[in-house]
Specification:
heterodimer, A: about 0% strand, B: alpha+beta, 3-stranded antiparallel beta sheet
Chain lengths: ~240, ~110
């Protein structure tokens, strides 16, 4: 690939990464850029010069984004919605994964002779740990693949996207298997009272999260909001 | 001569509609036509054309379709629709009114008798 082709590609992906421009908008402008370059080449400019002039004539990216923002307002909204849905999905997957892992840990530990209360605490700790692991993984993926205004899935490879889908399917399957086999087995092999005590301890943990979780998240949202407002004020 | 941003924004719609009234066209050709008509004196940032085209399409003044160019490149062509023709007539009468008014002011000579 020549240098100029690489420059065009960079220019294209910079625009394609914007949450305000649709893919078809960028393709249309790339066509424009190439036609302008052909005309400039015909008038005697080198390929590099033609690219630089044509790119300058099209206007700088920030100004273009601003103009497109006026007509593509719904794109911004769908983009925000995308992030919200992705967040809910990540939360659900993390919760399901944690439940499955916690149930597996109960299957392993229930023969050790520990008291039901301790079993409850152990499985609860495993659940919280698994949730945090998935949460950290999601944050890492976002940090790794996202740039300002760029949705991560536009930048990850097809293979990684496929891996994500397979993972989601496996997680759903594990959830079904757990409900169908692990839970009935736990109920039938332990005494109902002991199983009840395990669930009691777990449910206290869940209740604590129900109380503390929203407060924590609200506090996080508010401090993040203040941070961004201060930033715009100082500009 | 650079034209003020406000005037560029105001004249973009009638310019585009008038060029499309001559026949279907695509982005780069519209920009070239503006350059040619103004003798290169009217320079927009070319990219600004596209948001305006998309807005006009949303308003129903113009339509668009994809077609292959002579070189086999996929181009989005725009064509004027009926409501666009009406909008153009409206724009035209408004611009003529402003033009006439300014013309009278600037061409009036002091009366010496």
């Amino acid at each position: 690939m020549s240098d100029v082709e690489r420059w065009i590609e960079q220019w294209h992906s910079r625009l394609a990464g914007s949450e305000l421009l649709a893919g078809s908008d960028v393709n249309e402008m790339e066509n424009h850029l190439r036609e302008e370059m052909e005309d400039l080449r015909r008038s005697g400019l080198s390929e590099e010069e033609a690219f630089l002039v044509a790119r300058r004539r099209l206007g700088d990216t920030a100004a273009l984004e601003q103009e497109f923002a006026k007509v593509n307002r719904h794109r911004l909204l769908t983009n925000r919605l995308w992030w919200m849905v992705a967040g809910v999905l990540a939360y659900l997957v993390a919760t399901h994964f944690a439940t499955v892992v916690s149930q597996v840990s109960l299957t392993i530990t229930r023969g050790t002779g520990l008291s039901p209360h301790v079993l409850g605490l152990v499985t609860l700790a495993v659940q919280v740990g698994a949730f945090c692991v998935v949460g950290a993984l999601v944050l890492w993926l976002c940090a790794r693949y996202s740039r300002p205004g760029v949705r991560p899935h536009t930048r990850i490879s097809r293979r990684l996207r496929l891996a994500f889908l397979v993972g989601l399917l496996a997680e759903t399957l594990a959830l079904v298997v757990m409900r169908m086999f692990a839970v009935p087995r736990a109920i039938t092999t332990m005494t109902p009272q002991a199983y009840g005590q395990v669930l009691m301890v777990q449910s206290i943990g869940h209740f604590a999260w129900m109380l503390v979780g929203p407060v924590l998240l609200a506090a996080l949202l508010m401090t993040m909001h203040l941070g961004s407002r201060q930033k715009t004020e100082t500009q | 001569m650079t034209i003020s941003k406000d005037l560029v924004a105001a004249s973009a719609t009638p310019l585009i509609l008038s060029i499309l009234a001559e026949g279907d066209s695509y982005g780069y050709a519209i920009i070239k036509r503006v350059r040619e008509l103004s003798g290169g004196r009217m320079e927009w940032a070319d990219g600004m054309l596209y948001p305006v085209l998309h807005r006009l399409e949303k308003q129903g003044f113009i339509g668009s379709y994809l077609a292959k160019s002579e070189t086999g490149r996929q181009r989005r062509y725009y064509r004027l629709r009926k409501s666009g023709t009406k909008a153009l007539a409206e724009h035209r009468s408004q611009w003529m009114l402003v033009h006439d008014t300014l013309q009278r002011l600037w061409e009036s000579k002091p009366c010496l008798t």
